[in-house]
Amino acid sequence: MTLTKDFSFIVSNIPVLSIVPSNATINIGQSLSFKVTPFNGFGPFAINAILGNEVIATNTVDSGNALVFTYLPSALGSLTFSASATDNGASTPFLFESTNTITVKSVLDAPTSNVIVYAPANTVVTLNYTNANVLFSITSSNSVTANVLIDNLTSSYSSTPVASSTNFAKFVVLNFSVTDSVTNNALDDATFTVTMDVPCGSNAAPYKLIGSTWTALSFTSNTAACTMTFDIPADPIIGLFTSTAIPASSSTGGVVSSGGGGGGGSGSSLLSTSKPFTSGNRTGYTISNFSQSGLASMNVNGVAFSVVENFITPTTAGISVNGMALTLALNVPVQLSVSNNRTYYVELLGISYLPIQDTVTLRIYSQPNVVAIESQNSTKVTIPTTTVTTITPLTTVPSAEASVPATTSGQNQTPPASSSNWIMAAIVVVLVAAVGIVYYYSTTMRKGKGGKKKA
Q1: DSSP per residue over 300-352, as a string?
Q2: Where is 428: in which H helix or E strand?
Q3: 444: pLDDT confidence band, cut at 50, 70 and 90?
Q4: Which residues contact 285 (CB under 8 A, 6 or more apart)?
Q5: What does the alpha-carbon distance between residue 158 and residue 117 come to, in Å, rounded to a whole number?
Q6: Dist. CA 235–CA 178, nearest whole Å
Q7: Contact 198, 243 (CB under 8 A)
Q8: Are 146 and 196 contained in the same domain?
Q9: Is residue 221 part of a domain?
């Protein structure tokens, strides 16, 4: 006889645990709320949250319900968080688990005072904080200082000068980046408030470099303190462009010479060039080899001039004219050369700065040479009923166009053709000649008469 017995069993999908949030990153001092939920299986489920070898939370829930708890990290770095659950509804209890990673980053300590970093030239400055460093470099001209006040941050700082790339006016690059002792840091999303000095009475604007594009930042100005303040993220490049309020152009016209006429038609010319800033090699967030480049040529009275800009500051410009290097101050003429009896000058009329562009305005002009004529002794010629005295010329006789070589004292002088002295000299010559003729004639006549008496 065959005996049979029917039996049945229930098969459930393998239970799993869901942990939210997954692989979280937080700052030291921040807490996380976790939710551990079992799915599938039979239940009830006994759940334990484990950090290292320590159970930090536990509860028994049915399928679909969750263990919810809050965790406050006490150490930096990466921590392994795991959750285990036992399905007590199965005929044989079933254990399953899931793991997660928590990354704990450092934060800055609460500040006690602000930090002022003074950078007279290209400088790399490191601000050191507990468990975190803020590293930024300041790039500016050797002749310009940048005074940077970082609000809400404090600690000691050290600076290391680096070589200057070129001479700038008030163009400053702030390069902010972040490091800390455990590689991870909490400053990626931080915001700094920066207060920077600017030339009093100037126009200035901060821009941040995103990729290869400069984008304007919102800022406030303190005209009394000559500063500007703006907020920036922790890891950008910031460029501060400053524009000095100087006219970008000037009218042409004559140059008035001492003792002579001026204004209009003296051969003055205006030269204006605008050049963009060009950047050199850029690696990561380090900008180097900033420079301005500009070349212009012009012709004044038939004389050609080639002008190259070398550098600028708020009040000076370094240029080369036909290969001669010059440093020009505003509104101070500098002699270039003498050609065709004319002296040529260059004058810096204006410097202005705009974002990504600077403008230098120059004037090259010429004026006739001024001739110096030294004093000479007067001579006196006497004839019957007439006395004529030559007039000593002026020490300096300006002339609009004439070019007369200067002579040494005691030599005969030739006054300019345009001077009234020419007329006086001519009268003297004629009178002297007349006296000579009269004298000759009188002598001859006396000799002739005398001969007849002897006969």
Answers
A1: ETTEEEEEEEEEE-SSEEEEEETTEEEEEEBT--EEEEEETTEEEEEEEEEEE
A2: helix 421-454
A3: very low
A4: 175, 176, 177, 235, 236, 237
A5: 9
A6: 7
A7: no
A8: yes
A9: yes
Q: What share of the chain is helix, strand, coil (3-state, %, to 5)?
A: 5, 50, 45
Instruction: Tell me the residue type at 308.
Output: V
Token couple for 349: 């009329």
What is the model's pLDDT at position 403? Answer: 38
By residue count, the chain amounts to 455
Query: How confident is the model at residue 12, as a pLDDT?
Result: 57
Domain edge (last residue) among 332, 350, 368: 368
Range of the domain at 182: 115-243
Using alpha carbons, list the distances in angstroms from residue 108 to 49, 149, 320, 407. Answer: 30, 17, 51, 81
Residue 46 binned pLDDT confidence (cut-offs 50, 70, 90): very high
Taking alpha carbons only, the member of 92, 138, 452, 121 closest to residue 287 is 138
Question: Positive or negative CA dihedral for 39, 44, 46, 49?
Answer: positive
Torsion of CA 421, 423, 424, 430, to 10 degrees: 140
Residues pairing with 102 in the sheet: 79
Of 324, 309, 317, the closest CA to residue 347 belongs to 317
Pair (280, 213) in one structural domain: no
State whether 83 and 164 are in the same domain: no
Q: Which of 338, 368, 398 is the last residue of a domain?
A: 368
The predicted structure's pLDDT at residue 63: 79
Q: How large is the average pLDDT for residues 153-170?
A: 30
String of DSSP letters for 356-404: TEEEEEEEEEEEEPPEE-------EEEETTEEEEPPPPPSEE--SS---
Q: Phi and psi of 74, rounded to 5°? A: -120, 5
| 155 within 8 A of 128, measured Cβ to Cβ | yes
Can you tell me whether residue 176 is helix, strand or coil? strand
- Nearest 5°: the CA angle 14, 33, 46 is 35
Contacts of 427 (CB under 8 A, 6+ apart): 388
Which runs of E-coded beta strand occur in 54-154? 54-61, 67-71, 77-87, 94-105, 115-119, 123-129, 132-139, 146-151
Rounded-to-integer distance, Cα 76 and Cα 70, Å? 17
- Structural domain count, the chain: 4
